[in-house]
Amino acid sequence: MKTVGIIAEYNPFHNGHAYQIAKAKEITGADYCIIVMSGNFVQRGTPALLDKSLRTKAALQSGADLVLELPVYYAVSSAEYFASGAVALLDKLGVTDYLCFGSECGNLTILSALANALLDENAIFQSNLKEKLKDGLSYPQARNYALAASSPNLKADLDILQSPNNILGVEYLKALQKRSSRILPYTITREGAGYHMSKLHESYSSALAIRQSLCEKQDIAHVKEQVPESMYALFEENYQKNFPILPEDISNLLCYKLMMEQEKGFTEYLDIDHDFSDRIRKLLSTYTDYSSFCEQLKSKNRTYTRVARNLLHILLDIYQNDMEVFCADDYIYYARILGFRKDAAPLMSAIKKNTSIPFFSKLADSDSYISSTSGRKMLQKDIHTSHIYSLLLHQKFGQGIQNEYKTQVIIV
């Protein structure tokens, strides 16, 4: 039995995602595909367009065999933490043979060379990185300068690190190497529109384009050709009942949280230094909504997306000290099942036999599986943030606030 893993957000699930699952199985010869998916909040620093249950169902109906939740601490963090947490989860299952990821360049050799150089971080790299950050450059810009100085043979390939899927691919490769994992990486060239393309493409539109189109046109018919039939059926069934949840829907909650903590500052949260904390406090009196505040806060050395993640860290209580403990403890304490296919029974049995971490679906049983304080804290954060998402659904669509402990695993 061979198994391939994919790390994803599916925000929302579209034709390109269905293509990736099919292609991943084809090129690896895998019998089963495991998805590690972000829950109800995603790496761009926003709530997901659709809740995790709907996205899980869409993935299972389009070829995935098992969907596991990536803990929110990693789901809403930088590419390095996102990749490290997800790779650790796949690795600890004990059955994952391959990791398949999309990339703009489609060249595993070049991506691996960049990963090796970044793992090395020799004295030349470190001194140049520190100097450029001090000059006010963003981390990605400073990193590229440092790489050019420390690994001149890679200078011609540094433009690759301008593309988000390439960046994630490099981080996946770094995570695999750091773990000395037996998982073999494969990359698939991204088809159709680029990650940042905001306009719909003929066949393979980006998730960003689909989200923006749904927001602008206030209907769903125009995206029918961009998603699998099963996903569109979920759109029709849930439109204006359970979705869309948009970035602006967290505006009031975020403003309240910022106002309540303005006096003490925000440096205890992940990736927030004193300068940025002071900037938030200084500009808070001008707050109107989430997106506008992100625009106000962004700067030469802090991108809009990083700002959005930082604000989400505050809203969800994602603390720097907690993340340091989790990373020191090897990232992952459990594998929570969001959904699976009935015919994936052999895969489920193999995981139960080989996994080094608890593998479960019922939250009521979690205390008997997870013994560590840190593991329970991580799981409680997943539960807490799902309740916040449920509150967003209640405020926007009048849905009853759902208890995460009563959420049913999706079986297709």
Explain briefly what this protein structure is.
By secondary structure, the chain is an alpha/beta fold. The chain has helices spanning 15-28, 52-61, 72-75, 79-92, 108-120, 123-134, 139-150, 164-178, 207-217, 229-238, 251-261, 274-283, 290-297, 304-316, 320-328, 345-354, 366-369, 373-397, and strands spanning 3-8, 32-38, 41-42, 46-47, 66-70, 98-103, 184-189, 335-340, 359-360, 410-411. The protein has 18 helices and ten strands.
Task: Provide an overview of this structure.
The chain has 18 helices and 10 strands. The chain has helices at 15-28, 52-61, 72-75, 79-92, 108-120, 123-134, 139-150, 164-178, 207-217, 229-238, 251-261, 274-283, 290-297, 304-316, 320-328, 345-354, 366-369, 373-397; strands at 3-8, 32-38, 41-42, 46-47, 66-70, 98-103, 184-189, 335-340, 359-360, 410-411. α1 (15-28) links the parallel β1 and β2 (32-38).
